[in-house]
Every structure is written in C-alpha cells, then in structure tokens.
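INFO batch 0412 | record 1 of 1 | parsing
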Amino acid sequence: MSAPTAIPEHVLQHAPWSISKAGVIEKCSMQYAWKYGPKKIKELEVFQQATVGIAVHRVLEMALDGTPLKVAFQHAIDQGGLTTNEIDELKSFYDQIDRFVKKMVSFQKKHGVIPQNRFIERKWAIKPDFTNTEFFDKKGFFRGVVDFAMLTAVKDLIIIDHKSGKEKDIKEYEAQFKSYCLMALAKMPDIRGVQTAINFTLTDHLVWNPYIKAETIREEYQPWMVDYLTKSTAGLLESPKAVKGWYCKYCGYKSICTVFGGTGRVPEETQQ
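INFO prediction complete | emitting tokens
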C-alpha cells in the first residue's frame, strides 16, 4: 500500500467535508461563507424540487424497510409542509417506487442479502487517515449519508443513491460514489469490492457504475480524495466571492446576493 497523501492544512481546518459541502465551495465561495462559515445563516428560500425530493426519499426509506407503499406515501403526506401541487407531484412517483422496491426485494433473495446486511439512510464517516469514525465526530474528515446499501453473501457491497430530479450522466456523480466507496471500505474493511448505482426515480431507471475491487479503492481513491478536496477548496484561500452560474437557480441566498441586486447583508433573524 502506498503512503497516505498529505492533506493541506486549509482542507483539514474546514473539515468535516461532504460532497455537497465541497460542491458549494467549488462553485461559489460566497454561498459557502453563508452556508458553512463562522456566521452561517439559514437558507432564505426552499425550492419545491427539494421539498418533493425529500418526501420521495422518505417514502423510499420506509418502503425499502418493509413498510407497505401506501402507508409510506400517506406518512410522507401527513408529515406536513407539502402544498397540494407538491402532494400531486409526490403521488406521481408511486408506480416507479413500487417497481424499484420489488426489484430490490428480488435482488436480495438472489444474492443472499440477509436483513442485518441491508442498510438504509446510513450515516458514514472517515478520519484523515481514512479509517472509520462516528458521523458527528468533530475530528472527522469526510462524511455522507448512503441512501441504500446491501452486502451480498460473497461480501460485495452494493450502494444505490436515489435521485428524484431529471436524469443526468452518471459520470457527473463520480466524486459522490468514490467518497461512498472510501467510507464503505472504512466501515467494512473485509468487503471484496463495491458496485454503485443511481436510482433515477422519475424515469424508473437504475444506472450502474463498474464494479470496483477493494484494493483499487485503497490504492487509488485515497489520493484522489485529497486531490479533489484540494482543488475544490481553492476558494478558501481568498476572500468570499459570488460567482454566477446555473446553480444560482437553486440557491437559497439569491435575495441577498450582490449578483442579483442584493446588498450582501444578512438579516439578523436568519443567523444561526
């Protein structure tokens, strides 16, 4: 095994990291300062896509854990916070989720996945030395929430992430899945390898990545993560700057962003 790659100090200072957190600083350091900085504030706007997506995830979580699908949907609706239009949009996912859950039940039977080796909405994390740690460990380096995972009888780990939005090229999620592989290997060091996939719920399409051996994850993914975070966090070495892009459409801070005519000032009541 090769020697661990040195992690830059500014990367360690802002840990623990996640894919979403690294993605924010990579795109817009001003949004990062508002969302994760010392004086972080609550997002000022929540979008329907995100609200429905959270509800879809909740239904999948319950259904994959054995809750009847109709009960899972009703529970998500009863939680409140959904408009009439959002409830209708949520219900439009019923058939797709039903088919996906049935596929997973069949997969588990075929590949010898026992109940205790089925993982739903699991919080995993690693330390700077890439060993396992608790999700909320203050000394943690990287963490993430795995939507659904299964350990087969031959010790292959299957990780599936749910996406309720429009289908995209799976290559766009490369960083997310590589980080999942690293956390999985730290959590379960005896696995043979990992295969990841995306469940594009809207289109009822399950898209797979190639199978990756445990040895490859150890040798190649650790230096990749250090390099990825080093490049992604370059904005931390400069003063925060608002950068306009496609992602602005889903930013919860547009009302105060100078790019969109805001003052850049933060309402006191939103400070956390």
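INFO post-check: The radius of gyration is 20 Å.
INFO record closed
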